[in-house]
């Protein structure tokens, strides 16, 4: 690793360090979010199963008390009568035994009520699992999809930071941030998606600031036939000179002309 005469790192090495730091921040955020989701699902499951477990424990205690409250004389009589049975009576009694007799002596209404509660608890658990799966999908899409608003913002910000005209106008180092939320955080990046002529577009706006000046970044992308996004425009509007923006991308005329040419082609006769 070599240093320049001014003591700064080469541009390629500094960009590599920034990429590694950004990947590390994304991994830490995703791990933190996954951990919070796991704790939330575990807590919801325990809260849903708690009433059911309490009722089962109370029922077991009731059965134990009933069995312990039987007088010893009845138990002795039952044992003695079983010992005095002849083989023929044993075979007859075995034939009369039924294995499908339920040992639950509670009323039918109470059993129906208990089964309904159990089904409702299971429904709550399944609903929680489904909501958690949806949240996992949204989080993974936001963090790892190249077409997510978060990644579009990161890519545009890196491109703005590397633009020499922006560095000269704002002053390096340059940082980017979104709109300020109610808690005073600037993490919300304003964006909107819309459809036009069957094509999906995304429009975004965020802010950049150097040690000299500030500016607003405006961008718009359109979805191509391959499924990716391409820039329609990308420019930086300076606060001290809003009428002279720094244009990094402007493909509106080319894309509009291509769409007009495609729409004017003769359609096949069916």
From TrEMBL:
Keywords: Membrane, Mitochondrion, Mitochondrion inner membrane, Protein transport, Transit peptide, Translocation, Transmembrane, Transmembrane helix, Transport
Gene Ontology, cellular component aspect: TIM23 mitochondrial import inner membrane translocase complex
Kinase found in the keyword field: no
UniProt main location, coarse: mitochondrion
GO biological processes: protein import into mitochondrial matrix
Gene3D superfamilies: Mitochondrial import inner membrane translocase subunit Tim21
Pfam families listed in its UniProt record: TIM21
Transmembrane segments: 121-144
Subcellular location: Mitochondrion inner membrane; Mitochondrion membrane
InterPro entries: Tim21, Tim21_IMS_sf
Membrane topology: Single-pass membrane protein
Record region (Disordered): 80-101
Polar residues biased stretches: 80-92
Similarity comment text for this entry: Belongs to the TIM21 family.
Protein function: Essential component of the TIM23 complex, a complex that mediates the translocation of transit peptide-containing proteins across the mitochondrial inner membrane.
Subunit structure: Component of the TIM23 complex.
Protein's name according to its UniProt entry: Mitochondrial import inner membrane translocase subunit Tim21
Organismal lineage: Eukaryota, Metazoa, Ecdysozoa, Arthropoda, Hexapoda
């Amino acid at each position: 690793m070599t240093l320049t005469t001014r003591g700064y790192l080469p541009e390629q090495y500094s960009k590599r360090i920034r990429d590694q730091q950004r990947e590390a921040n994304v991994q830490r955020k995703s791990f933190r979010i996954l951990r919070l989701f796991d704790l939330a699902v575990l807590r919801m499951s325990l809260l849903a199963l708690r009433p059911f477990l309490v009722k089962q424990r109370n029922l077991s205690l009731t059965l134990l008390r009933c069995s312990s409250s039987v007088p010893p004389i009845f138990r002795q009589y039952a044992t003695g009568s079983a010992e005095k049975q002849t083989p023929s009576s044993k075979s007859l009694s075995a034939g009369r035994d039924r294995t499908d007799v339920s040992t639950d002596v509670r009323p039918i209404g109470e059993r129906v009520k208990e089964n309904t509660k159990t089904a409702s608890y299971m429904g709550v658990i399944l609903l929680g699992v489904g909501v958690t799966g949806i949240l996992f999908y949204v989080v993974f899409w936001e963090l790892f999809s190249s077409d997510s608003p978060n990644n579009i913002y990161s890519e545009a910000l890196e491109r703005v930071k590397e633009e020499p005209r922006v560095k000269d106008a704002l002053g390096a180092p340059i940082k980017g941030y979104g709109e300020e939320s109610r808690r005073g955080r600037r993490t919300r990046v304003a964006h909107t998606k819309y459809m036009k002529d069957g094509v999906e577009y995304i429009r975004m706006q965020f802010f950049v600031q150097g040690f000299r000046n500030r500016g607003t970044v405006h961008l718009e992308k359109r979805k191509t036939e391959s499924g990716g996004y391409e820039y329609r425009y990308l420019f930086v509007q300076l606060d001290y000179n809003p009428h002279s923006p720094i244009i990094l991308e402007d493909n509106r005329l080319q894309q509009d002309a291509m769409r007009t040419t495609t729409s004017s082609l003769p359609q096949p006769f069916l």
